[in-house]
Specification:
The protein has helices at 9-21, 33-43, 61-68, 87-91, 113-123, 175-185, 191-195; strands at residues 26-30, 51-55, 72-76, 98-104, 126-130, 138-139, 142-143, 150-154, 168-172. With 196 residues, the protein is of the alpha/beta class. The chain has a seven-stranded mixed sheet with strand order 1-9-8-5-4-2-3, sandwiched between helices. Strand 6 (138-139) and strand 7 (142-143) form a beta hairpin. It has one domain (9-195): Aspartate Aminotransferase, domain 2 (3-Layer(aba) Sandwich), CATH 3.40.640.10.
Length: 196
């Protein structure tokens, strides 16, 4: 008689623990990492006419989620040493319609986030950290997923941390974004109306 146990009480505990693990205030458990990217883009109101900068050196979902949102993926080159995008490679492909950057922390090697966040602040651009391969990674002492506006995580069977098949999470320090992502995850429901 535990129909809602895994999506209810146990899931809320996991979200709280994972938010603490990633040094963020909020987390929302989801079906997989692709859904995490989809929900992140939706929460940021990314859609038709928007450009989102991403690397091609990643799993397909990092770019396909942009297309699913109705936006345009714009591919930035990677640095030779890290195989990650950087402020330099992002600036080379910025457009007037750039609304977000997806920073993929490839194989646990995080993007150089300080210059990217500075650029994002200068241009009013959102940053999504794709942490599918970065559970436990640190950048200058800061946890992966705690630097950008939203982070998307995967717990697929071949990831660093798995939930036994599929699974995903979004994390954020922004309460408004968290509430939007929670609502998208649970059929438009409000977290407060259910749990408070």
């Amino acid at each position: 008689n535990k129909v809602n146990y895994w999506t209810g009480q146990e899931c809320r505990i996991f979200e709280k623990e994972f938010a603490e693990f990633s040094d963020t205030k909020y987390a929302v458990a989801l079906a997989n990492g692709t859904v995490a990217l989809d929900v992140a883009l939706k929460a940021l109101d990314i859609g038709a006419g928007d450009d989102v900068i991403v690397t091609s050196r990643t799993f397909l979902a990092s770019a396909s989620s942009i297309v699913t949102a109705g936006a345009n993926p714009v591919f930035a080159d990677v640095e030779l040493d890290s195989q990650n995008i950087s402020r330099r490679t992002i600036e080379a492909v910025l457009t007037p319609n750039t609304k977000a950057i997806i920073c993929v922390h490839l194989a646990g090697w995080m993007c150089d986030m300080d210059p990217i966040m500075q650029l994002a602040a200068e241009r009013g651009i959102y940053v999504i950290e794709d942490c599918a391969q970065a559970h436990g990674a640190k950048y200058k002492g800061k946890a992966a997923g705690s630097i950008g506006h939203i982070a998307a995580w995967s717990f697929c069977q071949d990831k660093i941390m798995t939930t036994g098949g599929e699974g995903g999470m979004v994390t954020t320090n922004d309460e408004t974004l968290w509430k939007k992502m929670w609502s998208y995850k649970d059929h438009g429901k409000s977290y407060d109306s259910i749990y408070n």
